[in-house]
Amino acid sequence: MAGASLSVDSMSLTYQGRAGGRQVIEDVTLDVDQGEFVCIVGPSGCGKTTLLRILAGLMPPTAGSVSLDGTPVTSPNREVAVVFQDYGRALCPWRTAVRNVELTLEATGVPRRERRDRSLDALGQVDLRDRAHDHPRMLSGGMQQRIQIARAIVGRPSVLLMDEPFASLDALTKFRLEDMFLDTWSRFGQTVVLVTHDLDEAVYLADRIIVLSGGPARVIDNIRVGIPRPRDQVTTRARDDFVALRTKLLQLIDGGGDR
Amino acid sequence: MTVGKGARAASVALVVVVLGAWEVVVRAGWISFETIPTPSATVRAWSHIAANGQLAGPVLHTLQFFMISFLLAAVAGIVLGMMIGLNKRCYSYLHASLEFLRFVPPPAIIPLVLLVSGFTDRSEILIAAFASLWPVLLNTAKGVSVIDPQLRDAGHALCLSRTQLLVKLVMPAALPLIVVGLRLALSLCLIIVITTEIVAIRQGIGFALVSASSALQPATVYAYLVTVGVLGTVVNVAFRLLERRVLLRGWSTS
Lengths: 259, 254
Description:
The structure holds two protein chains of two kinds.
Chain A: E1 6-17, E2 20-32, E3 37-41, H1 48-55, E4 63-68, E5 71-72, E6 80-83, H2 87-90, H3 97-107, H4 112-125, H5 141-153, E7 159-163, H6 171-188, E8 191-196, H7 199-205, E9 208-212, E10 219-224, H8 235-238, H9 240-256
Parallel strand pairs in A: 3-8, 3-9, 6-7, 7-8
Antiparallel strand pairs in A: 1-2, 1-4, 4-5, 9-10
Helix pairs in contact in A: 3-4, 3-5, 4-5, 7-9
Chain B: H1 5-27, H2 39-51, H3 56-86, H4 88-102, H5 110-117, H6 121-145, H7 149-157, H8 162-199, H9 204-214, H10 218-247
Helix pairs in contact in B: 2-10, 3-6, 3-8, 3-9, 4-6, 5-6, 6-8, 8-9, 8-10, 9-10
């Protein structure tokens, strides 16, 4: 349940098209420590989602490697859970909230009774216990994304990979979910890699921010966020170091992004 | 679609008014065709055939053959559709042929089947099942061949096995399309069963209609027509209920 370390070693990805290759990711090397919360930021369309899919073992890189606690990642792994951006398409509309969460445990063959108990518990973690028997369509976007988070944490993974999990939510819901997630994370201590294009969100959530350039994605900076925890939506965001860091990120991405 | 109480009452009133007007117009002799009975004559004819057993027999025959044919088409269509849809190469090879077969108007195969298996019960089932097979098969094949890539990613990330992926994600995700196929097959199957009875098989409501017509009993023809209408409605309503309560529970918002 405690985190695992994740490392990416000079990884590249090139799509072979008819008109020759197009490089999407260029020589990315990064390390994420056990229990660390890392945000990867970069301009839209710079290959962040692709990078995350490779980390999850959903697709292979063209060159280089990914390893989890020293073991190469070549296929999806039970230790690694993924939260996708588009909750509407990542959940099963025909299953109730709790049955969606149970899917994780069905894959690992957990007995029915335990499955239900643990899934209800996971829904409790994201404050959705009372909506456990509703279908996703009856729930708001924020609630649906919470189901996805519950589905990810119920298997007690050591690594959580999140692809812009809060991007399609309204500002208030987003703040609330960020805090709820930080709270869960502080209790379980998984290693988290969260991809986002929202710089404020990255500064607010992360221990460390990895900045990617746009097309092809390269690591252009690696910044430690020294802001103490627990963080708070009002006071943290008003701190001088928060604002300074956000400004720095914005300059980095503006300067090194679209050319 | 929700219909208010007022609209529902109005739609019932409309039927009553039209039937009443019909009755009056025919009785008063303003129009008189021997082939147009009054609604009351139709009701009398209906109770007559209901009493002497000329109703129950044909209805049971038609209903029975309709159900057997539909079930055959449903099972065969879903099984074959899955086999074809899950195999990309197979699907692409068969696509053109399937599209062609689908556009053969179903009654056109009646003579062929009669040639092969004669004027038998088996022919009636074969014809109706064959006709209703296509919508089920094609919709099932399409449904299982396209799964949302995001959902597939989610399934892979959860480390579902191939079988689990199929049973827990691909098949349920295809269900709405399969149900569309079944619904199309349902109406088609009833149409073809009755058509076959009209042109070839000397049983069921289709044949009863032809007999009443050749015996020059217009009121009886209308009585059978009303019965067929009610039968079709009952079958459809039953299927919608099955759809909402069992097949697609949770898919819709209500």
